[in-house]
Amino acid sequence: MNAPATQPRGPGGPGASRVVILGIYVTDLTFRASRMPLLGETIAGTAFKMGPGGKGSNQAVAAARAGADVVFCTRIGNDAFGAIARSTWAAEGITARVPAVADGVSTGAAHIFVDDATGQNAIIVAAGAAEQLCAADVDAIEADIAAARVFVTQLEQPVAAARRGLELARRHGVTTVFNPAPAMPFDDDVYALCDYITPNETEAATLTGIAVQSVEDARRAADVLLAKGVSTAIITLGEKGALLHSATQSLLIPAFQCGRVVETAGAGDGFTGGFAAALARGEDAVSAVRFGCALAGISVTRPGTAPSMPTLDEVTRVLQQAGEPSHVH
């Protein structure tokens, strides 16, 4: 896995809008039905679709379609699902950093149940080859990270790899965005490596012990995250929007209603990818959160995760229609 030489990150430089994302790719196997089956029960579904997924890969697609120069690091197998991954990244203009994987190691997959009536989802993820992501894989892309404006990672791959990415980004003065999903235990000193942390209500509750059922609950949970060392907490609240909370401001950014909700599985990834792309473009945090909310608002009106991500032009139109200023140059 050969990384390019470091490039400048200054305004207008080759790395000016670069986002490096560490995470997993899985192939989504999506089933739509009126309800979940009980254990031991078989029910008839209404639809099935296979497509690209995985939090990291979804965020990479969202950021690339939002105009960022994206480098994505993961592990995949030498199999049919791995071929789908490579063709997805090529089509989106994403630079893939993928170490060689031995035959017999499978690419990850996800079972996604989508409720026909509400678009709500339940997901089982098997990371496959990406379970082998390690700190050495991240060290191999240090030059990519150093050349970026924003580094993003999550918790679908091993914590040690995520931590190493955050450490390297901090070393090189790169803005860090940590999406702690799925929420799981990690050492508290990781929080201090986070310029931004982007949990949803459930993840915030798991990390802080505070049930997030209102905006005020979200503020209390965000205060706990700040006390642990995070610079800014952004708690995504579904149809309520997203709470941007730091030591100097606490602002609820409303959600964008862009049509009937079809599927919510990609919304969080769309938000994080869009937020990162906007930061890399030089937008301030408030504008970047608005951009992420608009992107997510469009994505939930479409089926799929990565396939649901809108283009930069689509997001810009939604912002303009809502009377929000456009920062796209």
Automatic annotation (TrEMBL):
Predominant localisation class: cytoplasm
Pinpoint the Carbohydrate kinase PfkB domain residues. 18-311
Identify the EC number(s).
2.7.1.15
Q: Tell where it localizes.
A: Cytoplasm
InterPro entries recorded for this chain? PfkB_dom (IPR011611), Ribo/fructo_kinase (IPR002139), Ribokinase (IPR011877), Ribokinase-like (IPR029056)
Q: Which UniProt keywords apply?
A: ATP-binding, Carbohydrate metabolism, Cytoplasm, Kinase, Magnesium, Metal-binding, Nucleotide-binding, Potassium, Transferase
Tell me its cofactors: Mg(2+)
Q: Which reaction does it catalyse?
A: D-ribose + ATP = D-ribose 5-phosphate + ADP + H(+)
Q: Which residues bind ATP?
A: 200, 236-241, 268-269
Active site, per annotation: 269 (proton acceptor)
Binding site residues for substrate: 26-28, 54-58, 156, 269
Q: Which Pfam family would be a valid example here? A: PfkB
Pathway annotation: Carbohydrate metabolism; D-ribose degradation; D-ribose 5-phosphate from beta-D-ribopyranose: step 2/2
Activity regulation description: Activated by a monovalent cation that binds near, but not in, the active site. The most likely occupant of the site in vivo is potassium. Ion binding induces a conformational change that may alter substrate affinity.
| Gene3D superfamilies the UniProt entry points to | 3.40.1190.20
Cite the binding residues for K(+): 265, 299, 302, 304, 308
Q: How does it assemble?
A: Homodimer.
Among NCBIfam families, the record links this protein to: D_ribokin_bact
Question: In which family does this protein belong, per the annotation?
Answer: Belongs to the carbohydrate kinase PfkB family. Ribokinase subfamily.
Tell me the function of this protein. Answer: Catalyzes the phosphorylation of ribose at O-5 in a reaction requiring ATP and magnesium. The resulting D-ribose-5-phosphate can then be used either for sythesis of nucleotides, histidine, and tryptophan, or as a component of the pentose phosphate pathway.
Q: What is this protein called?
A: Ribokinase
Gene name on record?
A: rbsK
